[in-house]
Amino acid sequence: TYGAVGTFTIQCCSTSTGSNNLNAGTTVAGSTLMVLVISGRYYCFDTTINTGHNTSDLTAYAQSGTWRSLSHQAFDTSSGKHMNVLWARIT
User: Fold this and answer.
1) Does the pLDDT value for residue 17 go beyond 70?
2) Sign, CA torsion 73/27/55/36
3) Closest Cα partner for 24 from 69, 89, 82?
4) Is 49 or 28 the better-scoring residue by pLDDT?
5) What local confidence, expressed as pLDDT, does residue 14 receive?
6) Which of 16, 25, 29, 35 is a good FRET partner for 59, with 20 to 30 A between their CA atoms?
7) Where are the beta strands (DSSP E) in the chain?
8) pLDDT tens per residue, range 43-76
């Protein structure tokens, strides 16, 4: 079932910019998850994996519950860019 415990999503996290690296296993509230929208098109995979996206490219698309990151994502501390991460809903 969409959004149920045990489901997955690939989204950006609004709390993961600048020096705030996401380690595998980090948990966040679903309300912090966002999607990439450029020129009215929704993207589920980050097409610029090495550079990330500005906050202005992201749209709130909050999920319910608590989500755990299944991958590590390091960020360039000077750029403040968001990048997609694979998440699993745990509660």
Assistant:
1) no
2) positive
3) 69
4) 28
5) 72
6) 25
7) 8-13, 27-29, 33-38, 41-43, 58-60, 66-69, 85-89
8) 665 545 555 666 666 777 768 999 999 987 665 5
Q: Of 6, 10, 12, 3, nearest to 86 (Cα)? A: 10
Half-sphere exposure of 42 (CA within 13 A, CB side): 9
Look at residue 42 in the predicted model and tell me its pLDDT: 72
Tokens, residue 22: 């996401």
In whole angstroms, give the CA distance from residue 39 to residue 68. Answer: 29
Burial class (CB in 10 A: 0-12, 13-18, 19+), 10: middle
- The structure tokens 């501390």 sit at 77
* pTM score of the predicted model: 0.72
**Tally of CB atoms within 10 A around 67:** 26
Calpha distance 9→35 (Å, rounded):
10
